[in-house]
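Two folds, back to back.
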Amino acid sequence: MIELPSGCVKQRDKKTYGVRVTPPAGMLTPDDLETVARVARKYAVPVLKITSGQRLTLLGLKEDEVGPVCDELPFKVAGHYVQACPGNQWCQFGVQDALEMAAEVEKRFSCATVPAKLKLGVSGCFICCAESYVRDLGLVGTRKGWTVLVGGSSGCSARVADVLAEEQSQSQALDLIARFLDYYRENALIMQRVPHFLEERGIETVRRALV
């Protein structure tokens, strides 16, 4: 039996697989796109789908194709994903550099060992195009720094995230996320998502422990 990389999911037909890859913060270069196109043509991938989390899924792969496809694609497979808006580099409304912050979040936390999967959103202003308020961890830029959010969910039990701290510098926000993930790792149940953990603990308990 072939050992498949994490992030490969058997499809409805019970025969083929889907592979999710994660462009960092949803950013792509022309070379990336050409590589993906070359791989898709080489393996006759029937469907390519952009996900709600700014990832790319290749659907309909045979079992023996999964490994080679993962090796040839320019992005990592699986991991926690980081969704980001264009931020103040490109958007007229942006007040913080969401792309730079997202790159740091991706580098530090996309492979974090935690009890359950993480979805992270980095928005450069209050319009919140990266859906930061409905992500396990979110950042929203203001003119005074970053607001750090925890415990959001866009699932069937939707939940607006709690504010963990406001007016944080980039380094302060990243440090607070690291401390929160340590706290979550040490106290949550296996497979307990961050929103359920926050509902159980309460934001005031978490703030007292970390802020």
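---
second:
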Amino acid sequence: MAVALAAVAATTRSILLRDVDHRVDRLLTQETGEFTNFVDRGVDPDTGERFSDPRRLLQVFLERQYADPGEELIGLVRREGAGPAQYTQPRELSVRHPLHRDPGARRAIFAASGSTGTLNRPSGGELRWAKVEVARHGDEPEAAFVVAFHPAAEQAKADDVFRILLAISGVALVLTTGIAWAVAGRILKPVRVVRTAAAQLTEQDLTRRIPVHGKDDIAALADTFNGMLDRLERAFAAQREFVDDAGHELRTPITIVRGHLELMGDDPSEREETVRLVTDELDRMSRIVEDLLLLAKAERPDFIRPEPVQLAELTADVFVKARTLGERRWELAETADSEARLDPQRITQAMVQLAQNAVQHTVPGQRIRVGSRVTDGRIELYVADSGPGVQAQDAEVIFERFRRGTSRRGARTSGAGLGLSIVRAIAHGHRGEVRLRATEGGGATFVLVLEDQT
């Protein structure tokens, strides 16, 4: 704003000075034109004849003229051996060194070959002039009419306007700066609150929130920041819970292994039993670690590698592999006769996990159905068992890591509670989801609802 105001003041001064130059040029042209016309048409009022004496011509013309402020009208006549004689109007000028009191300037103008010019006098300032020669005597004029203008007063007015504009601009700049400081401070106050809140956040304390006022962009920023804090708090809470659960799940087999090793005696049968138990616990720990690594890979973009797959063939393969998981009444309920781009290995892994889950919560002889279908443009692959079903309060919990629900559906198993979490991760990798539905006649149906990855 300071640069803009200074530019406006400087431009205004330049325009005013240019107007002064144009006005001086018009005035000089006008005065010389009037004198030239008088020379051509004027007559002596005493004789009624044309002027024959340059002195009389200049004297009569000057008596009939009225000069503007800062303007001088002078008649110069050549004199032998001295400077030119002058005829001037009897008036005082508000300039320090008028032309009629500056013989050196008069001689320079009278002897100049041009009809207009500018004199920059060290003591008298700038002088703009124009002349009309009346008669010539050899190489020198016999007489001349001179119009001189002192532009210093007009230029001073332009400078005064420039200084006034600078003063006004300075006051305006100070006022605008103060107002802008106050307004910007008020507008940016929520931003400072956001900055302060961000600086005070720690991993242990994510409860701080920013008050939201109004509906402007700053309020939207604060609301977005609060939403980010909500997501961070949930993520950190889930991370802490995951670490606690993982530590608990791994601590149990370690404790069992250590206890059996410490109590192991020299009896061969006892040593064999201890080795068997330790090996079993180590296998369980290995499965937990593998499942954790798989869930970590689920965040990578290459977790799912889709390719064209025949759904009917994929469903049949899953059914064949699932039948080996337990003595149940297995049924291939239906197959979708279409092609889709899926990751067959991940889908098989998820379906086998659902089948294993169904085996764990049923008893020999109970029915388990496997099938696939296309509904409303979405692919559905499902495993339905005829077990006790899932309690309503456990419907969401069972898909979380290390969570098995508050009420188990069947006998306790050695699983770590990661199987359904893996199934959900695979579904999300296919831009889909895993749903839990009730089975007709009793039981639970887990459905993978997937998007074709084309």
